[in-house]
From TrEMBL:
SUPFAM superfamilies (alphabetical): Thioredoxin-like
Protein name, as recorded: Glutaredoxin
NCBIfam families: GRX_bact (TIGR02181)
Any one cellular-component term (Gene Ontology): cytoplasm
Annotated GO biological process: cell redox homeostasis; cellular response to oxidative stress
Gene name, Swiss-Prot/TrEMBL: grxC
Similarity-based family: Belongs to the glutaredoxin family.
Amino acid sequence: MNTHPVILYTRPFCPYCTRAKALLAQVGADNVQEINIDGDNALFEEMQTRSNGGRTVPQIFIGDTHVGGFTDMAALHQQGGLLPLLGIS
């Protein structure tokens, strides 16, 4: 169980979004909120503001930390930084 909440900004049929959710499930993250921005300009703008201009999905936040996209999160996991950031021991 992760202690730090995860927010994923996503769109339907996004393969990187699917991979991000699968990786989070694989490591045991269960405090995950998915925000579908498809067709919602206000949510898209919110995502851009929070991610300092990110225009692609997913945009992933763990607690107050902007991780980036799936590739960034996968690299963080390979380097051993994802589980501590999630609060999983």
